[in-house]
C-alpha cells in the first residue's frame, strides 16, 4: 500500500470530518443544501458525512438506541419549536428565539422577579453522551465568568427525561458586524467595541477559560453600545484534562473555519493564542467589511490551505481600493495592518502573547503612540512623536531666535520619552512572557497547560517571579498580585512573605511612589486579617497619605485607600470615625462610576459600620445598595450578592426576626459555598451567621455541625487568636449555656475575652460582649455578685465604645437589672431594667427574647414593691407581644 494512497485517504478523512462538524451544527433542514454545496459530484463523500451524522445521533451506547428512534419520530413531525414539557425552575417559556443543530433557545420570564432570561435546551441531548458533556461543560464555564461583557449564567438543571437546560442572560442586540454596518460606526467606535470584546475575552482567560469560537455572530451589541460575548458551548478550561487528546473525535472540533486558527484546523493544542487569532480575524472584518479569506464555494481542505497560508490581502490594500468599511489615513492603515496581522500570525509565538497585549496596542494606536508589535526603529518612534506634537513643533519652528535652545530641550525630551517608552514596553512585554509561561506550563517538555490547577498556577507564578531580580519593578508588581491571590485563598503566611517582598522592593525604586502606596495598603489589609491592627492602621494611613500626595484628588487609589482605612477603623471598634471615612470613600467611588465592584465593597463596608454602631436602618439601606449593584453587574448568583444576603440576615437577627434571618442566611450561604466550596473562610463566615439564626430558633442539632465546621476552617486560616475565630466560638458558648452546660459556656466566653484583649489591647465592644456573656453564665449559676461585677465592667466598656442607645447596651442593662433583682435591690433593678427595656423597644421587636425577659423581670419587681397595677401592665404587654409573634 503506497504512501500516496495513504495520504489521499487521510486528506479525504480530514475533509469528511470538517464537513461533518459544520453540518452537525446546522438545523436539519439546511444540511442537505450544505452537503450538496461542499460535496459537488462526490456522492460517496456526502453519504459518508450523512452516515456520521446519523451515528452521532445514535451515540455509542446501546442503551440509547431505542430512544433515538423515538426522538427521530418526534423531530419528523415538525414540532421542533414547541416548548418541551417539564419544569424550568422559576422560568416560564415565552417563545423560541434561536435554533442550531444541537440546541434551541427560548425567551423565558421569571414571574416572581419580572425578569427575562434565555433558556437554552440541548435538543435530544439524551441521545448523545458527548452532547450532554458539551452542554455540562458550557454550564461549568459560564458559572466561572462574571463580566459585563459576557452573558451571565442564571440557573441550570435538567428536565424529567434528563434533557439539560440552562438559563442565561437574555441579550437583545445585533451581531457585531451588523451593528457597525447599520450604525455606520466610525473607526474609533469600532475600536472601542473591539476593545470591550478583548476585555471580556481577557476576563475569561484570567479564569483559565478560552472561547475557541470567537466570531461576530457570537458577539452581540445592545442598543446602548454594550457588547455581550455569547456561546461558550465549545469553550475550554485551561486546567481541564484530555480535551484535545483526540482532535478527530466527534464534537471536539466544532468551529467556524473562517475564524478558526491554524492550530484548530490542524487539530493541534489550543490556548490563549487561539482566541488572539480569532480576534485578529474579527478586527480585520470590522475594518474592511469582509473576512480575510474567500470561503464561498471552497472545500474544507481548500479553506484550510488558505488559512494556513495567511491573509491574501492586508487591510490597507482593501482600503486603497476604496472598499474598506472605515476611513483612515495611510499611516493609520499601515498600523492597522500591524494590529491585524500580528494577531493572525501563522506561528503562535509571533502573535500577541496575550489579549492584554493586543489591547495595549489598540490603546497605543488611539493615542498615536508607538505600537509594541512594530519594529522599534528610531524613525518610526520619531514619526509618531512628531505627529502627536505637530502643532507644537510648527510653532517652535517659527521662533528662529530660540531654535538652538529649543533643539537642545527637544533632544532631551525625546530621549526621556524614548527611554520611558522603552522601559514601559520592556516591562509590559516581560509581564506578557510571565503570563504566557504560566499558561503554557513552562518549557515545551513539561506537562501541558491543561493539567494546571489554580493553586499550582499561583505557586508556579512565585517561582517565575523569583527569576526577575534584574527587573525589580515587574517583580514587585507580580509579588503583590500573587500575594493578594494567596490572601484570598486563605494562605496568609504565603501572602505575608510576598507582600513584604513587594513593599521592600518598591521602597528601593525611584519614582514609584504611587506603587509604593498601593503596596502599603495591600500589606495593611493583610495585617487586618492577621489581627495586627496597630501595624495595619499605620501602613494604610501612610499609603493613603502618599496617594493623596502623588495622585490627583478623586483618584481611584485614594478611594481604595480610604476604604481600607474604614476597614481597620471598624475592626478597632471606632465606628463613628469609620462611618465618616466610609461616607467619603463611597462618594469618591460613586463619582468614578455608580456601578462598580468598588462601589459595592464601599457600600458593604459602610453598612457594616452602621450595623455595629446600632443604626440598623442605615445598615439595611447600604446592604441593599450592595445587592442592587452586584446584581446589575453580575446577576443573582455572585458572591457579592451572597454577602449582601448574609448581611441583611444579620440585620433581621438583631431585630429578632429569626425566621427571616435564617432565610437570608441560607440563600447567601448557598451562593457563597457554590462559588468558593465548603472549606473556604468566606463559606465559614456564612455558616457562622446561619448557625447564629438557628441557635436563636433553638435548633441546636442543625447549628452544631455548621459551627464546628466553620470553627475548624477559621482556626486553620486565621490562627487561634483571631476575632473571626471568637465570633464562631461565641455560638458554641450560647448553645452550651442554653443547654445548662455552664462550665463549657464560661470556658468559651472566657476564651473569647482573652482573644479580644490580646488583639485590641484596650476597650472594645466585642470584649464587652464576651464579658456580658460570662456574666450571664454566672447569673444562671446563682453567683449574682460575680455577675454584677462583670456586667458593670461590660457596661463601662460599652459606654466608651458605643452610643448609649445601642442594642447591646440595652441588653446589658436589662441583664444587670435581673442580677440586681435577684439580690432584691429593687430600686437599682428597676432603674436598669426600665432603661434597658426602653432601649430594646426602640431597636428591636417587642417579641424579642430580651424584651420579654425585661418585662418579666419588671412584673416580678413591681409585685415585690407592692405595685400590682404596674406589674399587670407589664404582663399585658408581654401577652400582647406573644400573641403578635404567633
Characterise this structure:
With 886 residues, this protein is mainly alpha-helical. Among the domains are: 73-168, 2-Layer Sandwich (Phosphorylase Kinase, domain 1), CATH 3.30.200; 173-369, Transferase(Phosphotransferase), domain 1 (Orthogonal Bundle), CATH 1.10.510.10; 762-886, Serine Threonine Protein Phosphatase 5, Tetratricopeptide repeat, CATH 1.25.40.10. Helix content is 66%, strand content 6%. It has a five-stranded antiparallel β-sheet with strand order 1-2-3-5-4, with helices on one face. The longest helix has 38 residues, at 403-440. The protein is elongated and about 110 Å long. Residues 1-6, 58-81, 239-253, 375-382 and 392-452 have low confidence and may be disordered.
Give descriptors for this structure.
886 residues; mainly alpha; Phosphorylase Kinase, domain 1; Transferase(Phosphotransferase), domain 1; Serine Threonine Protein Phosphatase 5, Tetratricopeptide repeat; 5-stranded antiparallel sheet; 3-stranded antiparallel sheet; 37 helices; elongated; disordered N terminus
What's the name of the CATH homologous superfamily of the domain at 173-369? Transferase(Phosphotransferase) domain 1
Silhouette: elongated
Highest CATH level, the class of the domain at 173-369: Mainly Alpha
Strand order of the largest sheet: 1-2-3-5-4
**Radius of gyration, rounded?**
33 Å
The total strand number stands at: 10
User: What is the helix tally?
Assistant: 37
The CATH architecture of the domain at 173-369 comes to: Orthogonal Bundle
Low-confidence stretches: 1-6, 58-81, 239-253, 375-382, 392-452
> Percent helix among the residues?
55-70%
**What is the average per-residue confidence, as pLDDT, rounded to a whole number?**
78
What structural category arises from helix and sheet content?
A: mainly alpha
CATH topology of the domain at 173-369: Transferase(Phosphotransferase), domain 1
End-to-end separation in angstroms reads 89 Å
Strand content: 5-15%
Amino acid at each position: 500500500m503506497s504512501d500516496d494512497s495513504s495520504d489521499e485517504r487521510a486528506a479525504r478523512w480530514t475533509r469528511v470530518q470538517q464537513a461533518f462538524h459544520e453540518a452537525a451544527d446546522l438545523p436539519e433542514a439546511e444540511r442537505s443544501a450544505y452537503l450538496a454545496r461542499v460535496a459537488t459530484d462526490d456522492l460517496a463523500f456526502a453519504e459518508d458525512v450523512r452516515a456520521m451524522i446519523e451515528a452521532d445521533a445514535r451515540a455509542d451506547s446501546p442503551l440509547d438506541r431505542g430512544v433515538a428512534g423515538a426522538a427521530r419520530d418526534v423531530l419528523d413531525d415538525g414540532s421542533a419549536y414547541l416548548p418541551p414539557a417539564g419544569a424550568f425552575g422559576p422560568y416560564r417559556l415565552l417563545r423560541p428565539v434561536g435554533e442550531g443543530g444541537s440546541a434551541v433557545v427560548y425567551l423565558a420570564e421569571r414571574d416572581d422577579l419580572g425578569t427575562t432570561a434565555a433558556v437554552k435546551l440541548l435538543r435530544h441531548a439524551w441521545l448523545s453522551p458527548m452532547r450532554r458533556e458539551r452542554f455540562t461543560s458550557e454550564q461549568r464555564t459560564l458559572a466561572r465568568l462574571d463580566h459585563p461583557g459576557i452573558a451571565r449564567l442564571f440557573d441550570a438543571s435538567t428536565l424529567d427525561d434528563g434533557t439539560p437546560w440552562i438559563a442565561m442572560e437574555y441579550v437583545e442586540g445585533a451581531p457585531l458586524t451588523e451593528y457597525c454596518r447599520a450604525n455606520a460606526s466610525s473607526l474609533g467606535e469600532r475600536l472601542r467595541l473591539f476593545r470591550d470584546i478583548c476585555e471580556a475575552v481577557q476576563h475569561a482567560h484570567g479564569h483559565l477559560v478560552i472561547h475557541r469560537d470567537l466570531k461576530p455572530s457570537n458577539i452581540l451589541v445592545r442598543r446602548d453600545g454594550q457588547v455581550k460575548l455569547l456561546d461558550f458551548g465549545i469553550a475550554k478550561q485551561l486546567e481541564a484534562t484530555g480535551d484535545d487528546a483526540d482532535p478527530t473525535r466527534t464534537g471536539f472540533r466544532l468551529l467556524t473555519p473562517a475564524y478558526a486558527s491554524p492550530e484548530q484546523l490542524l487539530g493541534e493544542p489550543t490556548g490563549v493564542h487561539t482566541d488572539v487569532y480569532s480576534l485578529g480575524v474579527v478586527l480585520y472584518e470590522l475594518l474592511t467589511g469582509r473576512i480575510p479569506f474567500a470561503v464561498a464555494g471552497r472545500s474544507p481542505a481548500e479553506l484550510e490551505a488558505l488559512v494556513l497560508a495567511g491573509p491574501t490581502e492586508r487591510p490597507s490594500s482593501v482600503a486603497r481600493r476604496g472598499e474598506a468599511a472605515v476611513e483612515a489615513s495611510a499611516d493609520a492603515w499601515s498600523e492597522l495592518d500591524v494590529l491585524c496581522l500580528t494577531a493572525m500570525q501563522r506561528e503562535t509565538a509571533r502573535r500577541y502573547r496575550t489579549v492584554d497585549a493586543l489591547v495595549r496596542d489598540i490603546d497605543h494606536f488611539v493615542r498615536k503612540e508607538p505600537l509594541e508589535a512594530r519594529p522599534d526603529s528610531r524613525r518610526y518612534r520619531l514619526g509618531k512623536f512628531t505627529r502627536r506634537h505637530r502643532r507644537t513643533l510648527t510653532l517652535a519652528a517659527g521662533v528662529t531666535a530660540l531654535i538652538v535652545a529649543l533643539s537642545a530641550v527637544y533632544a532631551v525630551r525625546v530621549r526621556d520619552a524614548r527611554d520611558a517608552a522603552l522601559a514601559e514596553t520592556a516591562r509590559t512585554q516581560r509581564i506578557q512572557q510571565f503570563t504566557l509561561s504560566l499558561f503554557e506550563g513552562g518549557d515545551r517538555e513539561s506537562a501541558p497547560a491543561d493539567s494546571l490547577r489554580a493553586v499550582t498556577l499561583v505557586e508556579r507564578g512565585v517561582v517565575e517571579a523569583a527569576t526577575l531580580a534584574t527587573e525589580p519593578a515587574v517583580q514587585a508588581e507580580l509579588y503583590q498580585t500573587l500575594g493578594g491571590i494567596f490572601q484570598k485563598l486563605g494562605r496568609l503566611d504565603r501572602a505575608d512573605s510576598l507582600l513584604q517582598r513587594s513593599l521592600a522592593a518598591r521602597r528601593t525604586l525611584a519614582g514609584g511612589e504611587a506603587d509604593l502606596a498601593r503596596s502599603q495598603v495591600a500589606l495593611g489589609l493583610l495585617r487586618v486579617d492577621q489581627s495586627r491592627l496597630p501595624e495595619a492602621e499605620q501602613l494604610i494611613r501612610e499609603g493613603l497619605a502618599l496617594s493623596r500626595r502623588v495622585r490627583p484628588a478623586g483618584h481611584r487609589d485614594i478611594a481604595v485607600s480610604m476604604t481600607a482605612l474604614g476597614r481597620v477603623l471598624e475592626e478597632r471598634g471606632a465606628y463613628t470615625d469609620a462611618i465618616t471615612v466610609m461616607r467619603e470613600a463611597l462618594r469618591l467611588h460613586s463619582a468614578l462610576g455608580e456601578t462598580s465592584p468598588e462601589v459595592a465593597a464601599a457600600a458593604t463596608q459602610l453598612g457594616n459600620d452602621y450595623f455595629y454602631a446600632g443604626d440598623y436602618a442605615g445598615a439595611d439601606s447600604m446592604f441593599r445598595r450592595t445587592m442592587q449593584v452586584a446584581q446589575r453587574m453580575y446577576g443573582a448568583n455572585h458572591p457579592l450578592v451572597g454577602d449582601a444576603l448574609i448581611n441583611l440576615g444579620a440585620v433581621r437577627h438583631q431585630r429578632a426576626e429569626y425566621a427571616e434571618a435564617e432565610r437570608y442566611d441560607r440563600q447567601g450561604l448557598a451562593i457563597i459555598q457554590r462559588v468558593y466550596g465548603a472549606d473556604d473562610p468566606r463559606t465559614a463566615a456564612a455558616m457562622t451567621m446561619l448557625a447564629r439564626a438557628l441557635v436563636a430558633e433553638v435548633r441546636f442539632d442543625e447549628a452544631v455541625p455548621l459551627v464546628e465546621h466553620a470553627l475548624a476552617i477559621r482556626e486553620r486560616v486565621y490562627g487561634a487568636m483571631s476575632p473571626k475565630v471568637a465570633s464562631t466560638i461565641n455560638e458554641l458558648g450560647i448553645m452550651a449555656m442554653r443547654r445548662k452546660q455552664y462550665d463549657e459556656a464560661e470556658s468559651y466566653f472566657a476564651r473569647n475575652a482573652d482573644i479580644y484583649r490580646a488583639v485590641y489591647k484596650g476597650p472594645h465592644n466585642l470584649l464587652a460582649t464576651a464579658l456580658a456573656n460570662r456574666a450571664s453564665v454566672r447569673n444562671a449559676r446563682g453567683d449574682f455578685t460575680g455577675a454584677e461585677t462583670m456586667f458593670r465592667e461590660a457596661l463601662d466598656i460599652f459606654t466608651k465604645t458605643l452610643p448609649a442607645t445601642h442594642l447591646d447596651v440595652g441588653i446589658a442593662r436589662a441583664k444587670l437589672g435581673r442580677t440586681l433583682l435577684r439580690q432584691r435591690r429593687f430600686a437599682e433593678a428597676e432603674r436598669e431594667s426600665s432603661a434597658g427595656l426602653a432601649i430594646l423597644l426602640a431597636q428591636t421587636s417587642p417579641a424579642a427574647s430580651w424584651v420579654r425577659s425585661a418585662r418579666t423581670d419588671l412584673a416580678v419587681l413591681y409585685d415585690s414593691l407592692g405595685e400590682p397595677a404596674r406589674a399587670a401592665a407589664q404582663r399585658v404587654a408581654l401577652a400582647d407581644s406573644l400573641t403578635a409573634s404567633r
